[in-house]
Amino acid sequence: MKNVFRQGPITSEFIGNSIHKHQSKTSIGAHNIFLGQVRADQIEDKQVTAIEYSAYEEMANKKFHEIREAAFEKFELTCSHIYHSIGKVGVGEICLFVFVSAPHRKVVFEAIEYLVERIKKEAPIFGKEVFEDETHVWKVNN
After folding, report:
1. Tens digits of per-residue pLDDT, 81-106?
2. Which of 23, 74, 86, 131 is least surrounded by Cβ atoms within 10 Å, i.e. has the fewest?
3. Which CATH number fits domain 5-138: 3.10.129.10, 3.30.565.10, 3.90.1170.40, 3.40.50.2300?
4. How far is CA 126 from CA 15, 43, 55, 92, 104, in A?
5. Are strands 5-7 and 79-90 parallel, antiparallel or unpaired?
6. 3-state SS, residue 50
7. Is 6 within 8 Å of 15 (Cβ atoms)?
């Protein structure tokens, strides 16, 4: 089972390398990518500067594997990859990278939405929103 977690933000170099590795797979006709980025939300007059992610990693990796396998059963995918940050991720940085590939384009749009919605609802990942004054609150997914 694959470890989906990356320490800190997911870099553009990591994303680019992931895309580059798929160029040799000539049965692929379409890719789709979802990038989750930390927002500078305003909560009760405080500005979010980062999110500190934590997880029950073994349980979360199992859940990500289950979600990914369900997507392969539901859609005609060639590849599917999920990466999530653990640790502190600053505003404007990437915390979730979901990447799917398939022979045809329609499938990748449907699969991305399916994967992201299940991840947001089911993955045991927790985030503390960190404010400018270094105080924090548990993040509520929406």
Report:
1. 999 999 999 999 999 999 999 999 99
2. 23
3. 3.90.1170.40
4. 23, 18, 6, 19, 34
5. parallel
6. strand
7. no
